[in-house]
């Protein structure tokens, strides 16, 4: 990092007194910083850190945010108010990019809970709707650090000294030995009741209520507080899925999800229908058979088509030009295969990005069909609140470019406990035991992340 260049450049900055914040963009291209190092370096900021990374290299986004300097939080979803708050916040920021060749965009990170109606103690640290502007934003795709501070009493020289210290110290950070959590208890919650609910649901489904996703939980207790550096290390190894790590106060939410809700780039929206699944197999021949079974299985094809049709239906509100492939393809993750259909739409002028978010959530793959009927059924019938499980989380930029992932394959962490979440789509043709087995498969990514190999021997009903 050319500190001399930045030292001379900040002397020329003219503070705009009409703005509330100033954001300065520093290139760290010559410093080999990694997300895990940055998160470890800012351990003292625990409770105000996030990491969002798109799946598959080269990543569209790979950002770490530290210290929430401003948050937009609401107790209910209001698309017009959120758009107004977002525009007001970005309009209050003075940007200084120092003419860097590498460009980055300031982001808000956040999203909404799965359902606004639910309130339980374990999720109280997360608002129903929240988007956070981090003081320190590390963009690992473009190698840019954006520091945002309040203009009132800002000390530019002090900020530059801090940048210099970080650029030299973080790269040398050695995380050292991480602690693999030692389990004291592992148990599946409400298994008997969940199976009874699946049977009841199959009987309830008809032409007016065709699908609903039912989730269940697994609780794992550890001897010591869970080592977040161990979590960071495990997350770093998996680039096949979206990485979501979100701290707020004393709670942590983690997701390794295969599913993107949507990405907006310019005036084009990209999304995918993902529904229908089968487990991977270690035997190559059987694994290939499993893929063929998935592509031709009527129950999975039907479930997938419901999701694709619903997404296209919602997109027609925001676009006059929607394109998608006629046949689904196989989407592979570490433990499971899904059916996937890519969908692309040209957005109409002046579309409210939060309106899109509200229409898209939940997708039929996480809620059901019809949407409102399924949501009411889930909130009323499921055992425990979903919180951020299956919720949309991601990044929004000033120009409305955005990306949201659907937070599947996830867990809620507090102190020495982790609550894992997994769900399955229930249709009329569903079978209780096969749906239960599918949830076991879907717990595996978080079990793997925690270093837990054994299935629970205990259940709580």
TrEMBL record:
Transmembrane segments: none
Catalytic activity: chorismate = isochorismate
Coiled coil (UniProt feature): none
Domain Chorismate-utilising enzyme C-terminal, chain residue ranges per copy: 193-442
Keyword Isomerase annotated: yes
Pfam families linked: Chorismate_bind (PF00425)
SUPFAM superfamilies: ADC synthase
Alphabetically ordered keywords of this record: Isomerase
E.C. no: 5.4.4.2
GO terms assigned for molecular function: isochorismate synthase activity
UniProt-listed GO biological process terms: salicylic acid biosynthetic process
Family designation: Belongs to the isochorismate synthase family.
PANTHER family: ISOCHORISMATE SYNTHASE ENTC, ISOCHORISMATE SYNTHASE MENF
Name of the protein described by the UniProt record: isochorismate synthase
Organism classification: Bacteria, Bacillati, Bacillota, Bacilli, Bacillales
């Amino acid at each position: 990092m050319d500190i001399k260049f930045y030292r001379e450049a900040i002397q020329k900055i003219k503070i705009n007194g009409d703005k509330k914040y100033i954001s300065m963009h520093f290139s760290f291209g010559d410093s080999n910083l990694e997300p895990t190092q940055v998160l470890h370096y800012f351990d003292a900021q625990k409770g105000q850190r996030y990491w969002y990374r798109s799946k598959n290299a080269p990543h569209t986004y790979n950002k770490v945010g530290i210290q929430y300097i401003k948050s937009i939080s609401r107790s209910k979803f209001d698309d017009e108010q959120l758009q107004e708050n977002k525009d007001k916040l970005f309009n209050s920021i003075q940007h200084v990019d120092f003419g860097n060749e590498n460009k980055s965009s300031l982001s808000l990170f956040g999203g909404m809970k799965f359902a606004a109606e639910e309130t339980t103690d374990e999720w109280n640290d997360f608002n129903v709707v929240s988007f956070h502007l981090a003081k320190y934003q590390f963009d690992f795709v473009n190698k840019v650090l954006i520091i945002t501070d309040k203009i009132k009493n800002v000390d530019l020289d002090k900020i530059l000294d801090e940048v210099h210290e970080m650029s030299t110290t973080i790269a040398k950070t050695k995380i050292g030995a991480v602690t693999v959590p030692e389990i004291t208890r592992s148990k599946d919650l409400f298994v008997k009741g969940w199976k009874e609910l699946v049977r009841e649901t199959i009987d309830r489904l008809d032409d007016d209520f065709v699908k609903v996703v039912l989730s269940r939980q697994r609780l794992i207790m550890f001897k010591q507080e869970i080592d977040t550096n161990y979590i960071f290390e495990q997350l770093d190894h998996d680039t096949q899925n979206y990485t979501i790590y979100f701290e707020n106060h004393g709670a942590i939410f983690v997701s390794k999800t295969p599913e993107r809700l949507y990405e907006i780039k310019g005036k084009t929206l990209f999304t995918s229908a993902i529904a229908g699944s089968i487990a991977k197999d270690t035997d190559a021949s059987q694994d290939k058979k499993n893929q063929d079974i998935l592509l031709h299985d009527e129950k999975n094809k039907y479930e997938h088509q419901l999701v694709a049709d619903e997404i296209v239906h919602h997109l027609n509100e925001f676009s006059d030009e929607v394109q998608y492939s006629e046949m689904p393809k196989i989407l592979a993750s570490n433990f499971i295969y899904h059916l996937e259909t890519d969908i692309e739409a040209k957005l109409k002028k002046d579309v409210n990005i939060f309106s899109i978010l509200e229409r898209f959530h939940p997708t039929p793959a996480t809620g059901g069909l019809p949407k409102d009927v399924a949501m009411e059924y889930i909130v009323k019938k499921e055992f425990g609140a979903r919180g951020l499980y299956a919720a949309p989380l991601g990044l929004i930029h000033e120009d409305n470019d955005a990306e949201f992932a659907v937070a599947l394959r996830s867990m809620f962490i507090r102190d020495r406990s982790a609550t894992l979440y997994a769900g399955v789509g229930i249709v009329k043709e569903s079978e209780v035991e096969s749906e239960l087995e599918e949830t076991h498969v879907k717990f595996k990514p978080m079990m793997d992340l925690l270093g837990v190999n054994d299935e629970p021997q205990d259940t709580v009903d």
